[in-house]
Amino acid sequence: xxxxxxxxxxxxxxxxxxxALDRDPSLTQCPDEEALRxxxxxxxxxxxxxxxxPRTLRVRFAPEEAALVATLAWVEAD
Length: 78
Known about the structure:
Blueprint (H helix, E strand, L loop, with lengths): L1 H11 L5 E6 L9 H12 L11 E9 L2 E9 L3
Helix pairs in contact: 1-2
């Protein structure tokens, strides 16, 4: 489900982005950066991430009370 939301967000963007993942180490059920990148690329049918891109998609997975929270943020280059 999260990969789908990320794919839609990245797919709507006009340019490629860098991917930065912050995952709480206790969340072993959440994908690591490589798995997340692959799931998004598979869903979009293309590789949307480029380490030289001017913007960054920051993804954070963190536990919050009895829930798992995923936070997405677009960060533009300085």
